[in-house]
Amino acid sequence: MLLEVEDLCVEYLGTRPTRAVDHVSFSLSDGEFLGIVGESGCGKSTLLFGLAQLLSPPAQVTSGTVRFQGQDLLSLDERHLRQIRWRRISVVMQSAMNALNPVKSVGTQFSDAMRAHGERDRTAIRQRSEEVLRLVGIDPAHLHSYPHQLSGGMRQRVMIAMALLFSPELVLMDEPTSALDVVAQRSLMVQTKQLQRALGFAVVFVTHDMSLVSNFSDRLAVMYAGQMVEVGPTAETFAHPLHPYTQGLLEAFPSVHGPRVPLAGIAGAPPDLSQVPPGCPFHPRCPVRIGPVCQTVIPLRHRVGNSDVLCHLYRTESSSVA
Q: What is the pTM of this model?
């Protein structure tokens, strides 16, 4: 396994402590593409920043382990983390316009990143910068361009190029398509998948749009109230969703294939993470909740086929996962 996450908890500490990531566990193999989906505020981005150890106060990892190729990242100090970040684990931020320095050219920012990790040869820096821009379909002439001179799609591809400067084994992507139109979204996803297959790196892709990862991710993780309520192969999850929340998300998206059906949506709103209801967090919105059990008992993870699901509906027909 490339990445193993066990019982990870991240809290925002303060007068009202808020657990944004609640005992999350999953694994990632070499070269795998994992999509993480869910409504806004469910903890997706906090999870991603927790994996990369880029959390800022008051956010803090309070328990759990994050092992990258067997090494626990949570036990490393900042000096050792810098040796891993960008060289072996890189991050593509949500808004490229905010992530890129507006007063520095693309080439200068690439150079700064490489110099910060020990590369001093100007020719090598130039050649690698041109190479990664070509990988993402941008003319190397844009090394002289500033972020405001590029379109939204080009800025996002520049961020991906920067993430690939050192050929990392893992790329974490935090909603990189959220500011793009649907055509640019698909173009970026196709290019990301092609690069992943060609270079062999693994991807954790966070988004709120389930349809966006339907044809690109190998596995899909669905988050709700800081928990991964369902994790399974993408095709199986779309064909036979297990958790009622996953079913609700899929019914909220229109399909361009098959008969026309009305969109159902999910009643209510996600809970305040500082005041999560007892029992199953989804029970106030769940159309198939089981009386007092869902309201009072925290569900265990159950193995159903090739998927893990956090739901009382499957407690009698599957084995619980520790």
A: 0.92
Alpha carbon distance 244, 131 (integer Å):
46
The better pLDDT of the pair 177, 129 is held by 129
What residue type is 282 in one-letter code? F
241-270 core/surface letters (b: 16 or more CB in 10 A; e: else) = bbbbbbbbbbeeeeeeeeeeeeeeebeeeb
Structure tokens at 312: 């009382």
- Range 238-251 average pLDDT: 93
- Between 33 and 152, whose confidence is greater? 33
Task: Report the pLDDT averaged over residues 21-36.
Answer: 96
**What is the C-alpha radius of gyration for the chain, rounded to an integer number of angstroms?**
21
